[in-house]
Every structure is written in structure tokens, then in C-alpha cells.
Fold this sequence. Notes:
By secondary structure, this protein is mainly alpha-helical. It has one helix and no strands.
Amino acid sequence: MCSQVHHLEEKFTVLAENQNDVDDRYTRAKQENAELSTKLFMFEEQLREVELRADEKLRDEQRRHKEALSRFEREKQLQIENYEIKSQMLEKDLSSSKVEVKRLEGTLERERNEKNRLADKYGNVEREISSVREQNRELLNQNRIDRESMAMESAGSQQVRQSIQFGIKS
């Protein structure tokens, strides 16, 4: 029986050691669990903070994007209105230019007709001037001939007078 007691004491010792090991492991596991729970809680808090910051950043970005889009839409609308105004002005300018071109074409045609009329009149005047110059030359020629004839007649009459005077004196 002694051996049985001894055997039981050994088993009891082993069981006590095992119980101590189990208690130590349980305590370590409990501590690790507490540490991990604390870390998990800290990570969850950090995650919440990060999510809050990310949500806030997202809202800010969405707000800025919405403002930029709104500003872009306003600028686009202003540009469209400006281009429409410019287009209307260009259409008016084009229309008035077409009217002005037609008016100027009419004026040009009248001026061409007037030029042709004046050119014809100038040609007639040139011909008249040539004719008058020719008549003037003929008249000057005739005048010269008449003067020469008169000079001859005058010289002849003077000779006759001289002859008559000499005849009377003699």
C-alpha cells in the first residue's frame, strides 16, 4: 500500500504541477486576452477616429467638388451667354455688311456709269479741242496769208502812191 500511496502522491504532485501549469497558462492567457482586448479597444478607437476623419475629409472634398462644379457651371453658362451675344453681334454685323456691300455695289455701278459717261464726254471734248486747234491753225494760217496779202497790197499801194507822188512832182 505504501507503493500505492507513493504512486498516488506522485500522481498528486504531477496533477498539482499540471494544475499550476494550467493555472499559469490560464493567467497568461487571461493577461494576454486583457492586453489584446485593450489593444483591440485602442485599435477600434483609432479606427473610429480614422473613419470620422475620413468621413469629414470626404464631406469636405464633396463640398469643395460641389462648389467647384457649381462655379464651373456658372462660368460655362457665362461663356455660353457671351458666345451667344458675340454670335448675335457677328450675325448683325454680317447682315449690315451684306446691306453695305449691296449699297456699295450700287454706288460702284453708278460710279462706273458716271466714269464711262465722263470718259465719253472727255473723248468728245478732246475731239472738240482737236477740232478747235485745227480750226485755230487754219485761222492762224489764213490770218498769216491775209497779213502777207495785206502787206503786199500795202506795199503795192505805197508804191502806187509814191509813183503818183513822183509823177506829180515831176
